[in-house]
Each structure stands twice: as C-alpha cells, then as structure tokens.
Amino acid sequence: MDDVRQAVLDALRAAGEPLSAGQIAERTGLDRKAVDKAMDALKKAGEIESPVRCKWQPKA
Questions:
Q1: In whole numbers, what is the pLDDT of the chain averaged over residues?
Q2: Cα end-to-end distance, the chain, whole Å
Q3: What gap in Å lies between CA 43 and CA 36, rounded to an integer?
Q4: Is the CA virtual torsion 47, 20, 12, 50 positive or negative?
Q5: Cα 11 from chain centroid?
C-alpha cells in the first residue's frame, strides 16, 4: 500500500466517524486529487465503505 492510501486509511480510522474526501484532505494535508485517487483504490480493494452518501469509513 502506498503512503497516500495509508494516510487516508489512518485518517479514517483516527476520526471514529465517516468522513468526506474533503475532510480527509484537510486532516492529512494531502491534495484533494491525491485523496480521491487513493480512495478509489481503497474502495476497489474493499478497505473502505460508505455508510452515508459521500462519507467513508474503514471496513470493520
């Protein structure tokens, strides 16, 4: 797993609540496009899920 994907996953785990891509970018200091790309990869890998529209959390 690359550093950006790991940072996104770490931010989601630390939040304790579902976050939007914009919130993840703010919390990590990463570029929004990099966050979107990492989230696409995490979705395809089954690492994250969306409990509510446009918000994401790590799969349990």
A1: 96
A2: 18
A3: 10
A4: negative
A5: 7
